[in-house]
Design a protein that fits this description.
single chain, 128 residues, mainly alpha
């Protein structure tokens, strides 16, 4: 196999570089103000590309370097397995929460999506 064929095999030019879509998702996560959240679907809609599952996958793989706790499920349930860390961030930032009912497993609060959800207002730079 020649060097020329190796270079044109369709693989990434820089294997350590983030995929373009992932960079865009992470940029949106960084725009979300403290105390506010966007759903996975909101982020996809903001970008005009992908869907909630694609955004969730990006956040699972690459979201540790951005405020991951601000990209959430639409039902307000905290990210399974990360509830204590997320809850600490929400309380520190003053994110609106709904206290858990007595029947809720572990009595973990949910996000108050009506009050916490951010529509991206005021930030149109990079919006497609």
């Amino acid at each position: 196999m020649s060097q020329e064929s190796l270079a044109s095999d369709g693989g990434p030019e820089h294997p350590d570089a983030l995929p373009e879509y992932a960079e865009r998702v992470l940029e949106v996560a960084e725009l979300i103000p403290q105390g506010r959240v966007m759903t996975y679907g909101d982020v996809a809609e903001w970008l005009g590309e992908g869907g909630p599952r694609q955004v969730g996958r990006v956040m699972a793989l690459y979201g540790g370097a951005v405020p991951w706790w601000r990209v959430v499920r639409a039902d307000g349930v905290l990210l399974p397995g990360h509830e204590p860390r997320a809850l600490g961030h929400y309380r520190a930032e003053g994110t609106p929460l709904k206290e858990a009912s007595r029947a809720a497993e572990g009595h973990v609060p949910r996000l108050d999506m009506r009050r916490a959800r951010w529509d991206g207002g005021g930030h149109t730079e990079g919006h497609t």
